[in-house]
Each structure stands twice: as structure tokens, then as C-alpha cells.
Design brief:
The complex is a heterodimer of chains A (155) and B (119).
Chain A: E1 8-9, E2 13-16, H1 22-35, H2 40-60, E3 70-77, E4 81-88, H3 116-124, E5 127-133, E6 136-144
Antiparallel strand pairs in A: 1-3, 2-3, 3-4, 4-6, 5-6
Helix pairs in contact in A: 1-2, 2-3
Chain B: E1 5-12, E2 15-22, H1 29-36, E3 45-52, H2 58-73, E4 77-81, H3 85-93, E5 101-103, H4 106-114
Parallel strand pairs in B: 2-3, 3-4, 4-5
Antiparallel strand pairs in B: 1-2
The chains are: A alpha+beta (155), B alpha/beta (119).
Chain lengths: 155, 119
């Protein structure tokens, strides 16, 4: 289903699932977004999406509290799109199954905290894909590039 | 190792001015919470300067939610200063923005918070 795609790949980044590594993941996405010519807002939304998915995996994905998970991030520049692939070795989790928060109009006094992170992530991309690949959750965020660097021509 | 966020608290008149410098994410949100929530005493006035916070995730929103609850419960007031356009967008999309008093600069925020009590 996910055949080897052509396009320019950035060197992948692999880190252990620790909150201290979130900034590195965001830096990577920011560099990919800049290379793809995304504007500031699109770049920010993509950073937010990856941050939220990674935070979610670190918080809820561990099979047990002492179990470390691994996170792997890579970017593929295609002529029309930037694909950001975030993988983690946490428990199987499809973000698309998370219910959309329904309390966005409630006064803050009545809000339940949480549930917003995944909502941001799914809202941030033009297309979102998920699959379980072996021991890994694979989240793919696809964002359309407006102009700029066209990467390697596919085909 | 340098901490991922710097938080400074000073008192200006009757207002506690908290300045955060750095990203507020899953790694740093608890530090903001630890520093800021105890300042929400009865009738307190808090100014949270986020001018030098380029990034805030939902972990930061959770701290703002806790702060709003605490301050409201203590009949205090809080003003957020210097939200970036991107953070403002996220707060708007989640319905948070309308519940906070916001200002562009610290002096503007101080004027707002020191003004007559809201009706």
C-alpha cells in the first residue's frame, strides 16, 4: 500500500521517547517545512502536529512505565507535497479513532483537560494516514506545497 | 545543561508579572505550572508575558486552563501578553481565546489589569 515513494528524503531522526527530545523533533520538522517552502503558519501547524503525536505516544503508548519507546521521524519532499512520517514503537494507536473534542464551545470552567493534542494533529495536515507496520505506529502527515523547491521529479 | 525554559517573576505595583522565555511543551509545561499557579492567591492580579514563547502545545493550554480556573476561583484577574499569531490561532480554534484578557505589550497589559474591576 505504501510503495517506495520517489522524492527527496531528509536524513531520518531517531530518538528515545523522552519529553526532552520534543524540541529536536520540532526543529527537524521546521527544517523540512523551510526546505519545502511552507509559510510560517503551515510550518507551525506541522510542528504542533508532530509534537502532539509524539507527546501522546510518550504519555500513553508505553506498554509499562519503565518501558522506553523509540520515535523515528523522516521527511520526504515531493514536487507537490511534503510528507512527514512519524513512527513510534508504542502500543498500537490510530489517532483517527480518537473522538473529536465536543467541548470546544464550553466555558473553560467546564472543560475536561486533554483530548486537544490529537485534534490539533489531525487538523494540521491536508491529509493524514495511519498504519501499523510491524512493531511501529506510522503516522503520515501530508501537506501541499504552494511553490518553491520542487524536489525530485517523480516518475 | 541550560533549562529549556526560563521563568522570572517580579511584582509591579499590585501585579505579579511572570515572564516566560522558551517553548511551552510536554517537557516544560509543568515548570510553568509550578511557578505560576501558586501566585493565584485570593484577589491576585497576574500578568503572564508570553512575548518570548515561540511555541505552545496543548500541554501549555492545559496550564492556561488550570490557571484560569484557579484565578477565577480566587476572584483574581489574569492577563496574557504578547501571544504570537500562531499561538493565538490555536487558542482561537479551541475556544480558549475568548476567556482570556489579552494585550500586545506589558504596559498595555498592566493598564488593563489595574483598571476598574470588571462589572
Amino acid at each position: 500500500m505504501t510503495g517506495r515513494r520517489k522524492g527527496r528524503r531528509m536524513e531520518p531522526l531517531q530518538v528515545i521517547g523522552a519529553f526532552e527530545r520534543l524540541a529536536e523533533l520540532r526543529d527537524y520538522v521546521e527544517r523540512a517545512a523551510a526546505t519545502a517552502g511552507l509559510d510560517r503558519k503551515a510550518s507551525y501547524r506541522l510542528c504542533l502536529a508532530v509534537d502532539e503525536l509524539a507527546t501522546n505516544a510518550m504519555t500513553h503508548g508505553r506498554p509499562s512505565p519503565e518501558h522506553e519507546i523509540q520515535l523515528r521521524l523522516h521527511a520526504i519532499l515531493e514536487p507537490a507535497t511534503l510528507r512527514i512520517v512519524l513512527e513510534d514503537t508504542g502500543k498500537p494507536y490510530d489517532p483517527r479513532q480518537t473522538p473529536v473534542p465536543t467541548n470546544l464551545n464550553l466555558p473553560l470552567e467546564e472543560r475536561e483537560p486533554g483530548g486537544l493534542g490529537v485534534f490539533f494533529a489531525l487538523q494540521s495536515a491536508d491529509e493524514f494516514q495511519y498504519e501499523r507496520a510491524g512493531d511501529w505506529n506510522r503516522n503520515v502527515l501530508v501537506v501541499r506545497r504552494v511553490a518553491g523547491d520542487s524536489g525530485t521529479q517523480a516518475g | 545543561m541550560e533549562p529549556a525554559i526560563q521563568i522570572a517573576v517580579e511584582t509591579v505595583g499590585t501585579v505579579a508579572v511572570v515572564t516566560a522565555v522558551g517553548d511551552i511543551d510536554g517537557n516544560t509545561a509543568y515548570l510553568v505550572e509550578e511557578q505560576v499557579l501558586p501566585l493565584a492567591l485570593p484577589g491576585s492580579r497576574l500578568l503572564l508575558d508570553l512575548t518570548k514563547v515561540p511555541f505552545m502545545s496543548s500541554a501549555g493550554l492545559r496550564v492556561l486552563l488550570a490557571l484560569h480556573r484557579r484565578v477565577t476561583g480566587e476572584a483574581g484577574r489574569v492577563v496574557l501578553v504578547g501571544l504570537s499569531e500562531e499561538i493565538r490561532d490555536v487558542m482561537n480554534a479551541t475556544g480558549f481565546l475568548g476567556f482570556f484578557t489579552v494585550a500586545d505589550t506589558v504596559p498595555a497589559g498592566l493598564t488593563l489589569i489595574e483598571g476598574p474591576p470588571a462589572a
